């Protein structure tokens, strides 16, 4: 299962990347994140790890995330495993007229029978998961704008848009 959200950010890819990889600041600007505890020391690199505590749909969960792919300032991929499922969260940033096109994509791949059951449950929550992703992206967009000033070339940016991509795996 893959779900994504996209938005135009009126800042450079570097500002967007710095914002979305400032893990300790997540609780300050991502409304769904309650706490972040770094496991590895800076600088950001492959295998950097941290715990993220997030409240979603009235349930609080603490997960360990690890950076498994990194191409600054354009791409970062996190991975975690839970309920027999491998979850990845990708952040893709591309230069675009007026700033940066940003996409957040979560992919869930079951690895066990328990994971297939969990994935079936999550499939029924696609729209709610997409809304949570879009909220994270909107929160990150606002923080990037705060950090990056009035925008790139004085142009206004488009708002966030959630999409349901991919297919059930």
Please describe what this structure looks like.
This protein is globular. It is an alpha+beta fold and about 170 residues long. The chain has a domain at about 1-20 and about 65-165: Alpha-D-Glucose-1,6-Bisphosphate, Chain A, domain 4 (2-Layer Sandwich), CATH 3.30.530. An 8-stranded antiparallel β-sheet has the order 2-3-4-5-6-7-1-8. The chain starts with a strand and ends in a 6-residue tail after the last strand. The protein has 4 helices and 8 strands.
Task: Give structural attributes.
8-stranded antiparallel β-sheet; alpha+beta; 169 residues; globular; disordered C terminus; Alpha-D-Glucose-1,6-Bisphosphate, Chain A, domain 4
Order of H and E elements: EHHEEEEEEHHE
Q: Can you tell me the CATH topology of one domain?
A: Alpha-D-Glucose-1,6-Bisphosphate, Chain A, domain 4
Please state how the strands of the largest beta sheet are arranged side by side: 2-3-4-5-6-7-1-8
Average pLDDT number? 88
Poorly predicted residue ranges: 153-169
| Shape category | globular
Number of strands: 8
Distance between the termini: 6 Å
Structural class, by secondary structure, is: alpha+beta
Percent strand equals 35-45%
| Main beta sheet strand tally, sense and closure | 8 strands, antiparallel
Pfam family, one: Polyketide_cyc2
InterPro entries: Polyketide_cyclase/dehydratase, START-like_dom_sf
Organism: Methylobrevis albus
Protein name: SRPBCC family protein
